[in-house]
Amino acid sequence: MSRVPWEVKAVLALIVLDGITVIATYSRFPTTELYHVHHSDTIAGGFGRELVALNFPFALVGIALVGLAWPRLHGRLRIAGVAAIALCAVVYFGVDQANLDAKPLNAVPALGLALAVVLVLAVGASPERQPRGDRLRIALAAVLVFFCAPLIAAELGFFLDGVPFLGWFFETGRLAHQPGVAGLHHAVHHGQHHGWEATMLSLIALAFSRLPRPRLLDAYLALMLAYGVGNLANDDWLEQVVKRGWTSREMPSVLTPTVNWGWAGVLVGAIAVWALWFRQPRRTTPAPASPAISPSA
Q1: What's the pLDDT tens digit per position in 13-51?
Q2: How far apart are CA 181 and CA 77, in angstroms?
Q3: How far apart are the first and last CA of the chain?
Q4: How many helical (H) and strand (E) elements, i.e. helices and strands, does the chain have?
Q5: Are 289 and 266 in contact (CB under 8 A)?
Q6: Cβ contacts of residue 138 below 8 Å, gap of 6+?
Q7: Which one of 19, 187, 225, 281 is least enclosed by Cβ atoms within 10 Å?
């Protein structure tokens, strides 16, 4: 563990804490209070929803974890790293936002995430830092967390009604109408929201961007950051603008790759972050050798 940077430890702690919250919330609320689940209000339902959360968003984090550990992986450990990435990539097929109940396929990306965690804990990552842009990281993280406040509260299982300032700034518990959906529903339903799930990817990208990494990971982290911002904007726009009746026009979904102006914005943002911030300068001198654990160690 001494070889594991605090940024990685903080991300692993976030995964654990988020998991505890998901299990607790989905174990105590009925399906009518949650989103697109059919089995809740039981411990089994809570663990089932957490299995899906280990797919999205956290299997995508598993790919980044392998990337951070990659320079220290050799031989069979590198093969294990490739396997972890492949298993994590199954998340694209394993999660359906229309049905968030756990299914056998969800075990595959979760296994990939577990393997990625084992690898990074075993070999560690470079302890060097690239703190350029830390003030911007902190400011951006603070803005993201603020606009995620109603979604974080929803995952914890409560509304912000009555909370000083936040209860006035955000709509959460009020019954509201959503275009195209029959009946009235709370502005922000209890449980996980894709805006918070993806925002965790943005926060993790900000943390991991401080660490040395393969150059290919620069682009991946930039895409994680832009993807998280895009999904938070999509979620907040629906719940804080459309459901207030200010407009009936919704932002296009950016949950999965598709051709729309939302994804165009995500890609442009990712390219800008990569080019202006996350892209590492090319080395002009050989990099010092990194200690590694061999498969026979």
Answers
A1: 999 999 999 999 999 999 999 999 998 889 999 999 999
A2: 49
A3: 16
A4: 12, 2
A5: no
A6: none
A7: 281
